[in-house]
Amino acid sequence: MRADRVFAYGAAAGLLGDLLLGDPRRGHPVAAFGRAAGAVEKVAWRDHRGWGALHTAVCAGGAVALGAVAQRVVRPSRTASVALTAAATWAVVGGTSLAREARVIGRALEAGDVEGARERLPHLCGRDPQALDADGIARAVVESVAENTSDAVVGALVWGAVGGVPGLLGFRAVNTLDAMVGHRSPRFRRYGWASARLDDVAGWPGARLTAALATVAGRDPRGAVRAWRADAGKHPSPNAGPVEASFAGALGVRLGGTLSYGGRVEHRPVLNGAGRTVAVHDIERAVRLSRRVSWLALGACVAARRIVKGRTS
């Protein structure tokens, strides 16, 4: 079976598996990788970029190597190759968990349980929930759904289309390392520099594809394009900017503004300033948009891989 078909069948099965099963409550492969990366950090940590780069190379390189070995072992069997791709896809994407957490918070807000929503918000993002009212929590959820559509689904599919199982595992490893050490805390300002920069590079194509598909899948394509072009560059993240701006335009809401992380207040530019304030019902709208973008991304990645394969064969 051709490699493009292995990816198509395997990625579709893996994305469907995530939709039906979600993430396992125990023994998740990404959690196992996180524990291994944490163990490496305990040994390697120095307040130095070089040691951080070594940490990134060992952990991300190890994930890619594991994927390459596994892919090579199963290559003689078409069924095993598809099954491995499906398992890897299911392991690295997190669209169902993302939707589940967003909806739990949305239901709490709909019931007027703002305190319950605050308690749940850290499961989805790193905002300081105590500083947020109901509208602020809803905005944080919509922004997290937008950004994680790229990080947790589309980016992985893009790199799976490029590199098969090694691409899938490598992207999730890089993204996980960024979440662990890539933030600008005193401990990781230097040590996490390599992980943060590599995540920016790895996330670049997935973020642009996510933004483009949001303009297609949303109800206001012109608004999404307008917000993307006008406001994406204002965001401090080169990848979150296009995604959040296009989601804001597609949903007709206003994102960005003042937020707080770990006691640090940030005043971010407003995205889609012509939009209205985010309301609780926009959480469900964002989740549905995320779902549509995810399946469109699968189609786009499968088609792109087949076109490239056809030209090179």
Question: What do you see in this structure?
Answer:
Helix 5 runs antiparallel to helix 11. The two termini are 14 Å apart. It is globular and about 55 Å long. The relative contact order is 0.14. With 313 residues, the protein is mainly α. The longest helix has 48 residues, at 134-181. It has helices spanning 3-21, 29-44, 49-74, 78-92, 95-110, 114-120, 134-181, 193-217, 221-231, 240-251, 281-312, and strands at residues 253-261, 264-271, 276-277. It has a three-stranded mixed sheet with strand order 2-1-3. It has eleven helices and three strands, in the order ααααααααααβββα. Helices cover 73% and strands 6% of the residues.
Number of strands: 3
SS field, number of helical segments: 11
Taking all Cα atoms into account, the compactness measure Rg is: 19 Å
Listing every helix as H and every strand as E from the N terminus to the C terminus, the arrangement reads HHHHHHHHHHEEEH
How helix-rich are the residues, as a percent range? over 70%
| Silhouette | globular
Which spans of ≥5 residues are poorly predicted at pLDDT below 50?
none
The helix-and-strand class reads: mainly alpha
How would you state the average pLDDT, rounded?
93
The rounded distance between the terminal residues' Cα atoms is 14 Å
Largest sheet: 3 strands, mixed
Report the portion of residues in β strands: 5-15%
For the biggest β-sheet, the strand order reads: 2-1-3
Give a concise summary:
The chain is mostly helical and 313 residues long.
Could you outline the blueprint of secondary structure elements for this entry?
Blueprint: H1 3-21, H2 29-44, H3 49-74, H4 78-92, H5 95-110, H6 114-120, H7 134-181, H8 193-217, H9 221-231, H10 240-251, E1 253-261, E2 264-271, E3 276-277, H11 281-312
Parallel strand pairs: 1-3
Antiparallel strand pairs: 1-2
Helix pairs in contact: 1-4, 1-7, 1-11, 2-3, 2-7, 3-7, 4-7, 5-6, 5-7, 5-11, 7-8, 7-10, 7-11, 8-9, 8-10, 8-11, 9-10
